[in-house]
Amino acid sequence: MSLRNSPFRRSLRIGVIATALTAVLATAACGGTTRGGEDSAGDATGQATGQANPNAAIKEGLKIAFLPKQVNNPYFTVSDNGGKSAVEELKGEYKEVGPSEANASSQVSYINTLSQQGTDVIVTSANDPNAICGALNDARKAGAKVVTFDSDTKPECRDAFVNQATAEGIAENQVKLISEQIGGEGKIAVLSATPNATNQNAWIELMKKELTKPEYSKIELVTTAYGNDDDQKSFQETQGLLRSYPDLKGIISPTTVGVAAAARYLSGSEFKGKVALTGLGTPNQMRAFVKDGTVKAFALWNPADLGYLAAHVGASLASGRITGAEGERFTAGKLGDYTIGKDGVIVLGPPTVFDSGNIDQFDF
Description:
- The chain is an alpha/beta fold.
- Helix content is about 35%, strand content about 20%.
- The protein folds into two domains: about 5-165 and about 300-350, Response regulator (Rossmann fold); about 165-300, Response regulator (Rossmann fold), CATH 3.40.50.2300.
- The protein has a six-stranded parallel beta sheet, sandwiched between helices. Strands 7-6-8-9 form a four-stranded parallel beta sheet.
């Protein structure tokens, strides 16, 4: 199945979003809409009121830039291309910039440059929840709308966060998958991305909580390793886990780079078929490892839809259609309608599990 026909869109899209009202008003006071354009959220005197106009047209020519954790990462290549598709539909100007390594502060200089270039919308996946806050708020003061996706920063540093799925849903899914594959008992480890990655840390903490349930009482999480979203380091960390814990029964790697690297190591080792591996990966990355028996099942959402939704959120913010207030509704093109709720989060939808029975139906 192609991205265009992905079943991810069938899920009910009621998001949860809320923006700190003071941040919204401060941003509106700096212009509230496209730089140099009319203030569609203003009153008769031209002063910004911070009120959404759901009937406002999406402004043409919006400069929308995507800043992933790192460029040339297969996951972000797919998600950012989804954003590009949306920007083109909206007759805007798309740009992708970013670091080659996913370090805590590596995104700061790109944010500063985008702000100086008069970018209307910055869409970013944060490598660190704190490191880019100052730069993002400077960009907002200069008139940009900031949308985080995939991995959030502090809520007061952005206008909206587009989440791929609820953190609880991901944690439950990952623990369930590994439990099924190891027969409900044994030692497991987590292979994460960077130590400061907001989404990874949230999922891991919730996995630990999930593992306290009675049905998982015989499963022991022994350690968390960090591959820094680097293929070779993730490969080496997998090797290190199995040297340190020769009786390890399974690995959860909730990062597309990590799970593919771990699968590559397992597929050529004595542990193939003996140590279970699950995580979050793309079907195209994992297909060979599913077919050769290294991996039984893993999960993910549609990253192209995630980028597509993030672009629409940014365009709606920059056009005054929404402010981020709870209860506001907007339409995100082919994905349909969303309702803004609490906590600054819009949820794309639940993850899908991929295995030998369905993996060939997907192409991303």
